[in-house]
Amino acid sequence: ETLDKGLEKSSTSFLSKLTKAVAGKSKVDDTVLDDLEEILVSSDVGVGTTLKIIDRIEKRVSEDKYLGTEELNKILREEIAGLLSETNSGEESEFTIPKNKKPYVIMVVGVNGVGKTTTIGKLANQFKKAGYSVVLGAADTFRAAAIDQLQIWADRVGVPIVKQQMGSDPASVAFDTLQSAVAQNADVVIIDTAGRLHNKVGLMNELTKVKRVMQKVVEDAPHDVMLVLDGSTGQNAFEQAKQFTAATEVTSLAVTKLDGTAKGGVVIGISDEFKIPVKYIGVGEGIEDLQVFNKYEFVDSFFK
Ligand code: GDP
Fold it and tell me: Which EC number(s) are documented for this chain (predicted)?
């Protein structure tokens, strides 16, 4: 609902651009395809994924000899849903964690400003509401503000947080957090990490060390390495995905700020290009403004 509101807000929504491109035309021709390509790229779908989509539509045009513009919308939906299906099962709607992992350890990565802390807070809230006990770990020790912000969320949600002073070793904070979680028999641990993109080797070393130290406490931790991306930043989000996936094995995505932007296309491009499922989407600043990603709902709102 909130997502619909966000994506509808702008008159530059995907659907309105598409409608304009096919106005007065009865069939899909080269001009329509060119326009479509431009619209997809400008909606942040990404060049690689855009070309893939155009290619498939071209194929259908040549197979059927004729493709009416009225059918284009339906076909595009199918193609986009198909692309998303490759990585996103899309059946989930609840905030749940696997039963056989306790504590279930989520390591959260992403650069400053993308909404990492907010997403952790919202997620902790949802897990708590779902009946899980949650422990937060403030292993983004580079900025004092990051630790303070996480503390504010921990208080707001009412979950324990493990932290040290600013500048302390992130791996040491992660270690303490897991030990504390195990001692409390907690269900979920969410660890905030690496907020800065220093050079690639630096990032890789830092994340590798945090992981290795966590495994001293919980053998197969982390169970999920979640990259948070700001959905309103288009190319930057792609660039960050590239850097983080090169530095560590990212297993899920949370895409924030999909309210107030017509650029939800980044979700399509990034999940296709990096073959990583989008687990959560942020649709506002409030504590409830986090949704489990559902590809059907997403496609519906993209075409609204
Ligand atoms: P961090 O530096 O990555 O930890 O970012 P923060 O969590 O502090 O968030 C940065 C800003 O983005 C804050 O003003 C948040 O309220 C805002 N923010 C986070 N997620 C969302 C979202 O889904 N939608 C909107 N509109 N704002 C968000």
Answer: 3.6.5.4
pTM: 0.93
137: annotated binding-site residue?
no
For ligand 1, atom 5, the nearest C-alpha belongs to 115
Instruction: Encode pLDDT of 39-61 as tens digits.
Output: 999 889 999 999 999 999 999 88
Say yes or no: CB of residue 284 within 6 Å of ligand 1: yes
* Average pLDDT of every residue of the chain: 90
The number of the ligand 1 atom at minimal distance from the alpha carbon of 122 is 20
> Where does the chain show beta strands of DSSP type E?
104-109, 134-138, 161-162, 188-192, 224-230, 252-256, 278-282, 290-292
Quickly state the pLDDT bin for 10 (edges 50, 70, 90): very low
Annotated binding residue at 282?
no
Q: How far apart are CA 40 and CA 73, in angstroms?
A: 13
Contact status, residue 223 vs residue 181, Cβ threshold 8 Å: no
Q: Is 112 annotated as a binding residue?
A: yes
Which of 141, 285, 289 has most ligand 1 atoms within 8 Å of CB, for mutation?
A: 285
pLDDT in tens, 148-207: 999 999 999 999 999 999 999 999 999 999 999 999 999 999 999 977 766 778 888 989
Q: Please spell the DSSP secondary structure of 71-113, one letter per residue.
A: HHHHHHHHHHHHHHHTT------S----TT-SSEEEEEE--TT
Closest of 110, 127, 67 to residue 240, by C-alpha: 110
Amino acid residing at 67: L
Spatial CA neighbour of 226 closest among 104, 132, 85: 104
